[in-house]
Amino acid sequence: MIVSIKDIFKMLGMLIVSFCAVIVCTMFLNYYLDLSAIDDQITNEVLRIFYEAQCNTSIVISAVSGGCLLLTTVVLICFYIGHYIETNQKQLGILKALGYSRITVAKNFWVFGLPIFVGTALGYSGAHLLMPKLYELQNKEGLLPDISISFHPGLCFALVVLPTIFFALLAVYYSFIKLKIPALWLIRGQSTQKVVHAKKDTDMSFLRELEKSNVRQRKSLIFFITFAVFCFSAMMQMSSCMDKLASKMMAIMIMGIGIVLAVVTLFIATTSVVDANKKTITMMKVFGYSTRQCSKAVLNGYRPWAYFGFAVGTVYQYALLRIMISVVFKDVENVPEYKFSFTAMFITLAAFIILYEATMFAYTKKMEKLSVKEIMLD
Fold this sequence. Notes:
Order of helices and strands: HHHHHHHHHHHHHHHH
Number of strands: 0
Oligomer: single chain
């Protein structure tokens, strides 16, 4: 199996998501482990409450961010493998026809675990660069004894080595399942997806039918677009109050991760939609449809899911912060009161609309450049 530079570039999404997951988890889990080392020094009852709240905060942040990003990476790797098999059906079919077994071909897909290794390694290294600032801010509060940074080999193994092994094995297993297709079908490029028949609607226009068909046939992209906006909504709104609840560093880190995840995931999803519809868009233009009509038919079906993701992100960040304040820090004195900020929500909504519509506009311009010659040579 040959993975091209173009294929590796597409895997940057997995690298960035794994980087974001590990940089957050490393910082807070390392702090939790170092904090646990002074457990026997906390004898004061008031300090014990604050100490346990700090420990719980580190665990909650690591579990929530790590869990969400783990799920995203699983979906991403399955999407990439499915897309790779779909675009390289003939080559894979020839290998099977030459006598290579399914497991022999599938074993080569371990390479999809490499972006995870690079992302987790960079995330782990980046966390150690930022960690002194985190510890300095925590030590400034003066409530607990000063904590120094320690290296935990087990944490490195759990956040770098284990994810790499897990996703390499997942790639092999998932490709093994996806390659359960006769070699002749692969060589012919025959579709392996079940055809979903839409309900007959004689009044439905061609553009409306194409819009619904795109969403129905590419349900995995619904997840990407919804998740992209969810991350943007939740983390942008959450960062607006982190300055009071935690620190400026935390606010900047959350905002940065939210923007990066939103942009990368939205780029992956929109690029996949447009690339999958290149031929359709070109033929529509040949038959007189405008670029605006093509863009509407291909991309508009995902817009409601984007706004749904924004709403879910808004509810999620509010619920998470309420739980943190009312459960984790319920016994800690002088904790700032948290109230839902409509100002932050409307500012985030405006920023989301600008980002989303600018992305759609950029891809509409990309559609203008598609030509029949380019599609025939592809």
